[in-house]
Sequence to fold (615 residues):
Amino acid sequence: MKKHSLLFSLIVLAFACHDEKKEPITPKYVEESHSYARPNTAAITHLDLDIEANFDTKTISGSATYAIDNNVATSIVLDSKFLNITKVQADGKDTTFTLGDFDAQLGRPLIIDIAPNTNSITVFYNTTDQTEALQWLSPQQTADKTHPFLFTQGQAILTRSWIPIQDSPQIRITYNATVKVPKALMAVMSAENPKEKTADGIYTFKMKQPISPYLMALAVGDIQYKAVSHRTGVYAEPSMVDKAQAEFSDMEKMVVAAENLYGDYDWDQFDVIVLPPSFPFGGMENPRLTFATPTVIAGDKSLTSLIAHELAHSWSGNLVTNATWNDFWLNEGFTVYFEIRIMEALYGKDRANMIALIGRQDLEEEVEGFKNEPEMTKLKLDLTNKNPDDGMNSIAYDKGYLFLRTLEETVGREKFDAFLKNYFKTNAFSTVTTEGFVDYLNTNLLEPNAIEFNVDEWIYQPGIPDNQAVIVSDKFENARRTLQSFLDQKTVDVSKTQNWTTQEWVHFIRNFPESITVEDMKRLDDAFHFTNSSNSHIAMVWFEQAINHDYHDHHVDQKIEDFLIRVGRRWYVSTLYKAFKRHDKVDEALEIYHKARGNYHSVTSNTIDEMLGYN
Fold:
């Protein structure tokens, strides 16, 4: 070998060695208490998921392969819960791993041994009968009662129970997936989706925009697709798909209204799947495919503000994400504000204010419920050693909204809209802490306009500050007067309530006085058929009042029981079980719950178990 060739080789080798010994990168992830992951050491960036859903064993099995951003680490930590890990590979070769101690909330850390230059890991696994994110439904638990159904619910920290993953909202990954299901069924995910069933039951998916792990979602069932517009549409069981398409026919108008407010929709497609009634939430904003409860299908579009809400998450939550669950209000407070602005743009200020006022009433009740835990009424929470679900309540949603509405009224709508539009654009596909938002707010809105505002009181102190925006509704005032007139005169003039919205009816029922009699309740029920209402929101508030005021006979009692067995939406059922408990009727509640519990997702049953002391 010639001398100059040897020198050249040594130089090349030196550069190669230097490259292998990469300098540690500057930390970009904040510490949080709801994930075992150490992303500043090694973070996942892309997932290739290859799984099969087995309805006989009620398990998902397969592999999760991750591209990783490796900061010269010798191990990478994933979150797992109730998973059976069978094998792990690093860069395609078997490697060693350990599972840490089990925590009831967090599950177990999966610690995988890697080299400082490892670029990928693969985890082979299967779910178990304890997996909390998955709900396997028998045909009898579906709308059409012909085929089984499966859906996932990952928020807040349940994705780790069906995929081993770094289950923190500040992690963002793209993903591809291959999912095998029975040939009679279709699989859809929070990704690019099929419009028809395949012949072999194998489906492939791609999500090219980076998302947080709690937004990983899968549904499998006998479903069909119907378009609403070129970029919106609905999936549902065959008997439901036409109803869903009709109910959600304003979806494209909602997308246009949202874009006019705060910029382009960055997720290409906005579809909704109507799930069986055991789905625990009104909706879940999984990117490209919102999961929705059938309880919003009232036949008159009166409950479709939920669709506006989930669409708004395409900016607040999905595009700009809360860095930790302590910052959850950044997700939901912004989304409620955005939802109400969409509803105002489409249906007018009266309807928007009615929705906002119902939220304001929910907030008042929530604050009262936390009178012994005032720290839980802060926007920025400390949920260390608590389930992040504990922060998913009206404080995040409605106090967050009220804060933003008060800001809007203080600085003016034009300036506030420009600020929010820039906030979404500047922070797109990233995560934000509460402190980061406060800094952004001061720098880009308050200081340039020389505006004094009690930001710290709103965010870091309990309760509702005195400078809150006051929301008024003439239609709600009319509903109150109409109720009082009916009660005073002991007669009911149905003509006075013609063309009322769901919001007016909810306000009417919620404002029953403590002194209302069973005879008054029956008179109103005979006139308006509340016990037989097909509108789930009206039925829920009516049944709560029936429990509150001992209005019951065999028919009413049976309808309440049927509702609690059929509906799994946590807000609705927890409201009614809470009413039973408040009036010392826990035994009656438990008798119903024993029949209903099997129809509930773990998100709902965990809440009711604790509420009623069920074991």
